[in-house]
Amino acid sequence: MDAAPRPPKISVEAVTKLYGRKGEVRALENVDLEINEGEFVCLVGPSGCGKSTLLRMIADLHYPTSGSVKIQASGPGLTTAMVFQNYSIFPWKTVAENIGLPLEVNGTPKAERVDRVAALMDRMNLSDFADALPSALSGGMAQRVSIARALAVQPEILLMDEPFAALDAQMRRILQDELLSIWQEDQRTVVFVTHSLEEAILLGDRVVVMSARPGKIIGDYRIPFERPRRPEVRGTKEFAELEQEIWSQMRGEVERANK
Which SUPFAM superfamilies does the protein's record reference (predicted)? Predict the structure, then answer.
């Protein structure tokens, strides 16, 4: 007999989210989304469309007004980790201490913690800054620390909320390329919020387009470029055509959100 199909890793079913004392702000409306294990899914849409709200629901930080968000755990405990735009690292802790903090909190033995932190610092080009405080780091290095800390717990699901938005264009491109390489090594489930279509197409298996508020899903594009994906794909005609196709659908929503 054929094995039963595996359920989606993340299932968002008919989710609506209202804010305000009387529910006067409708952030999301009847959102349905399925994400399979090992998929890298990028959420794009105009500002205020509910992308970050949806991400926080997956992280169990916000709750739907109606509908449900279900996560399929692989084992007895589900691990998710989140990377924010503003780094969210502790200014009084060194790079090594920041990366190792979640391992310390969950009781990982010291020897294993030291080895895992060292491996992550090497992977993220941070080894020379192990004893540095965040005040000594550039924005790009600070975000590397944030990503390394998220990866330290070896999460089943990695949630990323515009992690490169505060960086200059050159550093943003470098970290996009590094994240692409990291993900292709272990292919964990990633949900990535961004305003950049170029970033979404480069990184994602799928690009999910949301409407202006109240946020609804109006497009779901499967990215045709093979894995492992090379950063040079940005310069191809096919990449530019796909970016234009998605923008053509999104443009009206951006204009509507800014009226």
Answer: P-loop containing nucleoside triphosphate hydrolases
